Amino acid sequence: MSTIETMQVVVYEGPFNIVVKKKTKPVLVDDTDAILKVHIAGVCGSDLHMYRGHQKTITGHTMGHEFIGTIESVGSAITRFNVGQKVMSMFSPMCMRCWFCQHGHTNRCVNGPSYGSMALDGGQAEFVRVPFADSTLEFIPEEVHDEMMILMCDIFPTGYYGAMKAITKLLRNTQTAESIVGGTLHAPSALRPAFQTIPLDEVVVVCLSWMWTSWTVPILSAKVLGAGTVYAVDSADDRLEEARKMGALPLKLGTDYIPEIVRSATAGRGADAVVEIVGNQSAMRLAIDLVRPCGIVSSVGFHQGDLPYTAFEAYSKNLDINMGRAAARPVYGEALKVFAENQDKFADFITHRMPLADAPTAYEMFEKHQARKVTLTL
Amino acid sequence: MSTIETMQVVVYEGPFNIVVKKKTKPVLVDDTDAILKVHIAGVCGSDLHMYRGHQKTITGHTMGHEFIGTIESVGSAITRFNVGQKVMSMFSPMCMRCWFCQHGHTNRCVNGPSYGSMALDGGQAEFVRVPFADSTLEFIPEEVHDEMMILMCDIFPTGYYGAMKAITKLLRNTQTAESIVGGTLHAPSALRPAFQTIPLDEVVVVCLSWMWTSWTVPILSAKVLGAGTVYAVDSADDRLEEARKMGALPLKLGTDYIPEIVRSATAGRGADAVVEIVGNQSAMRLAIDLVRPCGIVSSVGFHQGDLPYTAFEAYSKNLDINMGRAAARPVYGEALKVFAENQDKFADFITHRMPLADAPTAYEMFEKHQARKVTLTL
């Protein structure tokens, strides 16, 4: 009779109820799996949606979708990785075989279950099973410190994606079919104007990401991508100061008359784009108020309630709104380069490091804003 | 004492209350104005939003935003047009000087009032004042019959714009900042995949435009722009037959199980894009049901009520939704070319021609679907 190997894991038992307990150590299930021995696991702002009970779910699964570790075993189909290599995981597994993955929509992979759900235990654990390891994992580059790669699991690609969607949509917004489908159509009118694309240095972006630990990422990303003016909205002075250091103009909730300031800076029009990362109705409502007609709302916040705007508002402002979680894989290369070049700006990003056994305290402190970013170490 | 010149006009007096009465003939107000002697004015599907009382408005204005006529006088700043020339008008005046016009968003011109509103009398009248005539008017090309140009006032550019938005967004959907902003970022990972753009002949578009007189326009436009499969949803057999002739696969409301058919045709995914032109909640709801994750909803229907979907649906399907009226000027050249090449398909589009004095009957028949398209002749 073989002994069953167990390990320590962080389990969700219900709202405000995080428990450290023992579970059976995972084993390879599919030939595309890898098993990781986890070294560092992050507690992410999106974990709080579940912790606070806003995101309804069954209980009992292991939490966590940010982690780095060493490969302990690999399935027979794995070609990129070997036992003993140090790696990080994207925040959600992606198969790279389904139609969605192949078309760049890795955020809607039909085969990859989500970490930290009933379908797949997460990485706040001594060991974790990684499906589709060849595409879900990445190496840790020499130029980035191991611990800092926790930011590349979710925070950085997600924030970068939100800003990237806004900027690229703005740049393409005046293009017509003639310039996209390939010039088979022509313009018969002498009047046909050469419409201007907005010069990037004139673009005004507002980042709404208060309460989100990683809110400086979309600010930095929008600046790196060339946006001339980036406003950052928050209620806390310390976070507004961080935003300022990243190149944003700070706007304080409850103090500044934000819509008027944005309108004044844009000749009355409103912001060209708003990047929404909070995932609540008041943020989305502010986005609709601040964006100009024909502007972009790029939302990667996790949303559950009703939409806080009417069909008439969207119609009469000609709004272009995309929502949903980031596609990490298509932007990973770009995001990593931006991150590596700016990692000094995130040097004191992780404020608390605790042993896995202290996970209940870590969640409690994080939820109460007593910690900006907590990692669990093993 | 000079005599005051009067003319016959079609006035909105409230829901289901259209009256032909006399008003003072318009005169030049601004130096960018033109006065047109109207020959033909169309009753548009969007006039019914007001006629049926769905679109709340003050009463007393002259109706109509589709008309062709001869230039009777021009302001001193007009350079493109001379007295006596035959022209058509875009459905709404555009100044081409404001920030929105200059950036291709002529649908949100801040200086151009809407025809058929308290701000500007419409063209269902013997004469009409045209603001910003140099950019609001267009010549009638030799290859298109005068009367047919009524379709180019609104119906054709709007339907084309709806389809164009959907197709061009699909083609750009997998592009990242690297390929847009200009290649200053690079991908450090060997895995970085070459994501596929959807081949146009595999694109599946659904057109929702029932109750809209001009519903075959987005169907034709989507086909001309290269969409491989276009479904058309309607409840009426005769309109479904027209859709079939334009190249669409007809789906009958209340008879076909539409979501299942679309899913079967797309390996379970759903439509790549849905073009919504009806402007009501049930159409928008069907759009959300039919579109695939990461798909496009392109809506040019006039919407007033609540949005018939939740934030969670938009988030969890990663939807990209644009709403609002078409920008006519940027697509005018493309749309006219498609229209001119396909005008034979619209030869029997106008079913009823009535004198202006019969406008009340025209509206009544049109509202009851007894006429497909009515023009008022002068």
Automatic annotation (TrEMBL), chains A, B:
Q: Which residues form the Alcohol dehydrogenase-like C-terminal domain?
A: 220-337
The keyword Oxidoreductase appears for this protein? yes
Asked whether the UniProt record includes Nucleotide-binding among its keywords, one would answer no
Q: Which residues form a coiled coil?
A: none
InterPro entries recorded? ADH-like_C (IPR013149), ADH-like_N (IPR013154), ADH_Zn_CS (IPR002328), GroES-like_sf (IPR011032), NAD(P)-bd_dom_sf (IPR036291)
List, in alphabetical order, the Gene Ontology terms for molecular function in this entry: oxidoreductase activity; zinc ion binding
One Pfam match, by short name? ADH_N
Domain Alcohol dehydrogenase-like N-terminal: start-end pairs: 31-132
Q: Which cofactor(s) are needed, names only?
A: Zn(2+)
Assigned keywords, A-Z = Metal-binding, Oxidoreductase, Zinc
UniProt record similarity statement: Belongs to the zinc-containing alcohol dehydrogenase family.
> By what name is this protein known?
Enoyl reductase (ER) domain-containing protein
What species was this sequence derived from? Penicillium argentinense
